[in-house]
Specification:
- By secondary structure, this protein is mostly helical.
- It folds into two domains: 1-69, no CATH class; 70-152, Arc Repressor Mutant, subunit A (Orthogonal Bundle).
- It has helices at 24-34, 39-66, 73-84, 92-99, 103-115, 137-154, 161-177, and strands spanning 89-91, 119-123, 131-135.
- Strands 1-3-2 form a three-stranded antiparallel beta sheet.
- Strand 2 (119-123) and strand 3 (131-135) form a beta hairpin.
- Helix 1 (24-34) packs antiparallel against helix 2, helix 3 packs across helix 6 and helix 4 crosses helix 5.
- The longest helix is centred in the first third of the chain and has 28 residues, at 39-66.
- The protein is elongated, with a radius of gyration of 22 Å.
- Mean pLDDT is 91; it is low at 1-10.
């Protein structure tokens, strides 16, 4: 395997994949560089593509373990958020903000979970303009069982703990730089 030397733009000294490489994303970076889009652009393309692929891999694993519970990861996150709340209920607008998704997405998830008997809508006790979404007993049981399954995935991502911590730190930098928090 040849080594790609750093360029004037501040590139790295990483191993370059050869034509027989099995990593399609690394090969895409070589194509990017050969097309004249090297330096930060090629590194950025490889980073974005790698994160997107990692998202697909992780989501597929999570969705697989949630399938027996008839939950998607988005619905699981909503149930888990409610289970973590003091009363098992939150205003719909607050669930949207905490999950960092649009209210319409939360409303759709609530509709599906309500149809399954896992949550219910309730009027807010002191604010007539606000609707709460609340766990049902079945919802609480389901989320507790599903959490055990999800934690098996969380506990073994196929990376060492130090690598997981480094990944979280790197992604946190990206999130902060893009105004996520």
């Amino acid at each position: 395997m040849q080594v790609v030397e750093g360029d004037a733009m501040g590139g790295d000294d990483r191993p370059a994949p050869d034509a027989g490489s099995s990593d399609p994303i690394a090969l895409a970076r070589v194509n990017w560089e050969e097309a004249g889009w090297g330096g930060d652009v090629a590194v950025g393309m490889e980073a974005v593509t790698s994160v997107m692929r990692a998202h697909q891999i992780m989501l597929a694993r999570i969705e697989h373990v949630l399938k027996p519970f008839r939950l998607t990861f988005a619905r699981f996150e909503l149930l888990r958020l409610l289970a973590f709340s003091r009363r098992g209920a939150l205003p719909i607008s607050r669930t949207s903000a905490r999950l960092q998704v649009h209210v319409s997405s939360v409303t759709h998830a609530i509709d599906r979970l309500e149809h399954a008997g896992l949550v219910e809508r309730r009027p807010h006790p002191t604010d007539g303009r606000t609707t709460l979404v609340a766990l049902t007993a079945a919802g609480r049981n389901t989320v507790e069982e599903a959490t055990l399954a999800v934690n098996e995935v969380f506990g073994d991502l196929g990376m060492a703990r130090a690598d997981c911590e480094a990944l979280v730190a790197a992604v946190r930098v990206l999130r902060r730089a893009n105004g996520d928090f």
